[in-house]
Amino acid sequence: MPLLHYCQPPNDRQLPRAPQPLHADPLAAGRELHLHDGRLGYVMGSAVAHSADCQLDDYPWVEVSLIEAGELQLEWEGNALYLKAGDAFILPRGLSCRWRHSGELRRLFMAFPGRASEGPMPQAPVL
Length: 127
Hints:
Layout: E1 31-37, E2 42-56, E3 62-69, E4 71-76, E5 79-84, E6 88-91, E7 97-112
Antiparallel strand pairs: 1-2, 2-7, 3-6, 3-7, 4-5, 4-7
């Protein structure tokens, strides 16, 4: 299994690339997959996106993210979560929310499109 080192500047990182197993990915823009374990049902990678304002409806899997740079606002049912560099959060399967950021947003993520996304889920993002 590859070991990912983030001590290099983002432009100098040479990370492995994995095939895209996230079908109908609502956050596909700027997403790069670096590790895919089909047997255990997860993928890991990084994402760099520039300015987004999109509605996520019935999010298809559980995803854990760590923000490296930038700020992100998640809004749902009259609530909001403001995230910045260093914050980690979980998007539960089935979530409906608005995903907003201006400028560059860099994050590391681990998504579970397989069995880990089964069972009861929270109704809101988790910080």
